[in-house]
Fold this protein.
Amino acid sequence: MRPCRQFLPILFLTLGACASPSGNNGSGGVSPTAQAVDASSRAAAEASEASGDYQTAAVNWKALQERHPEDADTALHLARSLRYSGQIQPATDLLNRLLDKKGRDPVLLTELGKCYLAGDRLGLAVRTLTEAATLAPRDWQVLSALGVAQDYQGRYAEAQQAYSKALELSPDNPVILNNLGLSQAQSGLLLQARSTLERAADQPKANAQVRQNLALVRALTGDMAGAERLNRQDLPPDAVRANGAFYKSLGGAAHME
């Protein structure tokens, strides 16, 4: 059998700094007092992002964006914080307005594609991310996002091709490897998925979610002990027991190539 999507969620992970869209930073001709206010708002927004408080981050980015409506970088941060806090439609509207004004910037298109994906508008997500990939063919983040959208449409072979291209640009990237492994699992290639996710988990920047995805695939291939060891690295005992019961409820190993 093939693993169900609800058991294998696709990740949108971000490691390191993202590219910024073209455009000025809105600081030209601004008084020293206004610059200090902007710097304070930006610092507060970035601190909220770093702590995962995206609702507060969105409030701070919104204040900046209202003062500098033409600043594409601020708008991008605002849209991302809105998306992470579940405010999909405002983020989508903001990005579409900015793209109408500034043209087809691949960074903005990529974020718009992720908003469409988060809103389950899969056709728009694939079309938007395909356009972004055409404009920025050497940006691994665009290719990885496109692969995720194609996975959600069940186009696993195309998704895995996108991830392979992304890995050529960013070898051993745990974000890409994670998404590739999940795609392989969803298409029934469990042994390949396990190998790919083990490679992802071995990377220094791999996080707990990558290890949990590997634990699930190990369980699906019959390695319950290995799955439990991974769970114990990151989860409290109650969660370890709950996951173990869940794995057993899947009915043993799924189809393996």
